[in-house]
Amino acid sequence: FLGVMPAYSAADDALATKLVTFYEHKKDSSVPSHQATVLLFDPTNGSLKAIMDGSVITAKRTAAVSAIATKLLMPAFAEVLCILGAGVQAYSHYDIFMELFTFKEVRIWNRTKEKAVKFANSVNGPMQVYSSAEEAVTGADVIVTVTMATTPILFGEWVKPGAHINAVGASRPDWRELDDELMRNSILFVDSREAALTESGDVILSGAEIFAELGEVVKGTKPALREKTTVFKSLGMAVEDTVAAKFVYDSWSAGN
């Protein structure tokens, strides 16, 4: 797939588009499944201001949004973090979650165990590798799914009541990471209702009802319900790339 994600934010005086290629690698590859470039424009005249590494921006902004969702939705006393997947998004999520939160235990599972072991050996901090997803998520307070799964790898019967899940993978309408039981018995938050109802297999195929967009919780128009089991379905929005690119550009400009 080749995706084009344009956005303009008047509030941030930012105009950009992200070009992203997505290739489903049948075998483990040294080339990432997602590769991206961000073009940042001057909103006053349309001039191209910068060409930026969109893969880094995508990884960072996606993890940042998950961190916001987690801050708002996770249980009051969250001690155990579980990450399912060991790709680029696993690294970016681990970095920001370790920076913002104080988990006593961090677990990881990946379909290919060697990748999980490599991940655990490369990070600074405690990390326990699990051989099965069920063992990894049992008792976890916060779960992050960042896999290339096309069928469910996380099941409701495994999940601790009151846990919070950030579902980041399965970005196609026929792909799943979470099973029906988990989707239907959790309070569902999304980044965009429109996107979730057209792009997310977890939402579409389960028929789960969307309770709120994350932005509504940030603004205070919808409650967080952190005492419930919550799922944040993240698909990503172009405005996130645009605002992030502007932030990076402004920081770079200030340094020059």
Automatic annotation (TrEMBL):
Catalyzed chemical reaction(s): (S)-cystathionine ketimine + NADH + 2 H(+) = (3R,5S)-2,3,5,6,7-pentahydro-1,4-thiazepine-3,5-dicarboxylate + NAD(+); (3R)-1,4-thiomorpholine-3-carboxylate + NADP(+) = 3,4-dehydrothiomorpholine-3-carboxylate + NADPH + 2 H(+); L-pipecolate + NADP(+) = Delta(1)-piperideine-2-carboxylate + NADPH + H(+); L-pipecolate + NAD(+) = Delta(1)-piperideine-2-carboxylate + NADH + H(+)
Q: Which GO terms label this protein's molecular function in UniProt?
A: pyrroline-2-carboxylate reductase activity; thiomorpholine-carboxylate dehydrogenase activity; thyroid hormone binding
List each coiled-coil range.
Answer: none
EC numbers: 1.5.1.1, 1.5.1.25
Q: What's a GO cellular component annotated to this UniProt protein? A: cytoplasm
Q: Which GO terms describe its biological process?
A: thyroid hormone metabolic process
> Entry's Gene3D superfamilies?
NAD(P)-binding Rossmann-like Domain (3.40.50.720), ornithine cyclodeaminase, domain 1 (3.30.1780.10)
Q: Which SUPFAM superfamilies match?
A: NAD(P)-binding Rossmann-fold domains (SSF51735)
| Similarity comment text for this entry | Belongs to the ornithine cyclodeaminase/mu-crystallin family.
Q: How does it assemble?
A: Homodimer. Binds the thyroid hormone triiodothyronine (T3); T3 binding inhibits enzymatic activity.
The identity of this protein, by name, is Ketimine reductase mu-crystallin
- Organism of origin: Opisthocomus hoazin (Hoatzin)
